[in-house]
Each structure stands twice: as C-alpha cells, then as structure tokens.
Amino acid sequence: MSDHDSALFTDDVKTTPYWWDAAPPETAMDPLPARADVVIVGSGFAGLNAAAELARHGKAVVVLDANALGSGGSTRTGGMISSGQKLVVGGAIKGIPSELFQRMIADSIASFAFIQHLVREEQLDADLFIGGRYFGAHTRKQLASLYNMGDILHRVTGVTVHKVDREHQASIIGSDFYHGGILVDEYGGVHPGKYNRALRELARKFGAQLFSHARVTSVEDHGKGKRVNTERGAIEADEVIFLTNGYTDRAPTPNLAKRIVPVKSYQIATEPLPADLLAKLIPGGRMITDSRRDLIYTRPSPDGTRLLFGSRPGIMDCDDITAARRIRQRMLAIWPELAPYRISHAWSGYVGMTWDKTAYAGEMDNARFAVGCNGNGVALMSWLGFRAAQKLLGTEPQPLSFERGNFRPIPMYNGKPWFVPLVSGWYRLQDKVDKLRD
C-alpha cells in the first residue's frame, strides 16, 4: 500500500468480512454419502434453516456448498432484520395485485417473527438486537416521501414508526447530513457470522450432514429420484433444493441463473473507536440507512466497538481495497469526525436481485428453489429455507406467497450482469439531480 493508504488502513487490514473474526467459515471435507433423502445446495441462512427443519423431522439431509461453509452472501451482509420494509420502501408494492401483496406482507412479517423466535427458542449465539432502524432523508423532498412510506409501513405491517425532523434527529444520529427521517422501533440486527455458525450447529444437532467445497455440476433424474453430481462425487436423493440466491451457478441451474441477478455490495469496518465517539455517532446503537437510490447502510458492531458501513463504491465493480477508499468518503460525508480513524476490514458479497424486487420459490432445473432476497435477506432467506422444508414435509400451514408462476427471465441476460453498471450509474445520476434540486 502507498503512504497515503497507511493513513486509511490498519497495518493488518483484512479483505474478509469483519464477522469472520468471531465466526469464520468452515471446511468440512469428509467423504460424501452415497445417498440422502434431501440434498440442499447452499450453506447460507436459507439452506441451514431448511436443513435444520428437515432433519428435525427425521429426514436424512445433506448440505453442499461450493466453497467453505458459511462463506457466501449470508455472512457478508450487514446483518439487519426487518418485516416487509423492502416490499414497501423498496418499491415492490407497485404492480402487485392487492391480495398477493397482502400475502407477501404476511410472509415478510412472519419471517421477522420467525428469526427472533428461532434465536430465542434455540438459544442461538447470534447477538440478536431489536433496537430500531433509522431511514434518513437525503433531500427535503424525500423526507415527505419517507413520512408517507412510514404511514404505509405502520398500516400494513403494524410496526411503530416515528416521524423525525432534522432538528430532533440528534438523539438517533449524530449528524446533520440528513433532513430528518423515520425511525422504526421494532427493526434490528444479528451478527451474521455467529448466526450462520449457530445454524450449522443446530442442523448438525438434528442429524444433518454438511460438506464444503462440493460444487454441484448437475442434477439428473435417476430412477424415482435424482442424482446430484458434484466435484467431489455423486449423491442420490429423493429431493434437491437450491438455496443459493446471489451465488446461483449457471452450470446446474441455467434457467434459474437467468432470473436472479448477483449484485455486489461492499462494506468496511473501522478500527476500534472511542466508546464516547460511537455513542455520539449513533446514540442507541441503531441500524441506519437512507433514502438514496444508491443507498448506504451502517451500524455499530454488535460489541459496540466499531462502525460498519456499506454501499456501492461507484458505477463499476472493483477490488475491495479500492472500494473501501471510495466508501470511506461516503462515510465521512455523514461523519467527518471519523477522518482520523482507519479501516480494518474491507469486503464484498453478492445480493440476489429479481426483476420485480420480490422473492420467488418453486421448481426449476430439476429441483426446488427459493431465491431473491433483494438486499433484505437475513430474516427473509431464513424464512424461505424453513418454508421450503415445510413444503417437502407437507406441513406448510398455507401456500407460500412467493411461490408463483411468473418468475420471468431477464431480457438479454444469461447470468452475467452486464447491465448493473448502467443501473448503478442511473441511480447515482438521479440522486445527484435530486440533491441539486433540493
């Protein structure tokens, strides 16, 4: 690194998630079994919740991951959890029939309740925190829009929403960057690394087998079941579920890969900060995001020592250190007092996006699937995995709202997201125009 970089980064800066310091991914290279009742592809929150529920009910379950267990998007996230927020604030409400939207909201609310109940019931070491999330208005005009979204959130999801003006937001965020915003009391977060590790332990407790570095290359019909071919051998199974989201592979799931777009999101973590400074930046330790199309998301680390800050660094993807330099500037625009403090971690991960910003589940490519967290996946993907298990067990209390037949392929898309820079550039341009008109 350059002399300039030495002032920006700690000497031992890591390009792996901060979350991995406490709960690293796991290598599990035991030989694969010849057979299982259910093979689950993906060791994220969805895959592990599916595995735990199926194994709990006596199924012989195998979980496969192409890389280390828990190394994908689930442990690269910001760890925030909410109920239905993305459906409303994210714009997915547009164009969805009212009855279906109500069912989606119900599932989203259920996903938020599910993750809290699971963590508490199973006493999972996940640093669950329900302390609120603040949505800051980037412009004065967007404040009115956020107030309206807050009304909708309260009406359709039942959460407690406080409308906050600029003069009274100091008790929530120590910055005048925003023009006010809305505070949702019930939202919160988890430590995604610890949560994934706890889910691995839970799935194994019920008898599931987990294997790393076993990339699936194809799924074939075999007798009355399936043959799952991997780089480490083949497994016969009655059922196969792909729960791979932003890490969906074109080789075994070519049709699914045309419908799910991996979008890279980047994060940084500061070195440890003085406790009084962090308390000033985010009183109450809440989650923070904003109204920009090219939004940021930030929070204190669960142990209250660092600030974590996520964003895209620009129109084009880049390496994590380059991204960190740019993201740091977005962070300093909100909190200039962080300038003397260095970055200790810089990492990235893929979010699974769909054409209409909603999740989907069903059958495709000779297997079942559930994908499409659209940047709101900690609770939702946990729920989708649990519900995928219920579907196979025949125990689902009602049909899942996200299981529907209109999961469209994206035009001119073959699994390589060539258009993401165009969309990202358009979002940034609109944000700049909004600010100039403010």
TrEMBL record:
Span of domain FAD dependent oxidoreductase: 37-389
Pfam families with a match to the protein in the record: DAO
GO molecular function: oxidoreductase activity
The keyword Oxidoreductase is assigned to this record: yes
E.C. numbers: 1.-.-.-
Keyword Oxidoreductase attributed: yes
Domain of life: Bacteria
EC class of the enzyme, as a word: oxidoreductase
Record's keyword terms, sorted: Oxidoreductase
Protein name as annotated: NAD(P)/FAD-dependent oxidoreductase
The species this protein was found in: Pantoea osteomyelitidis
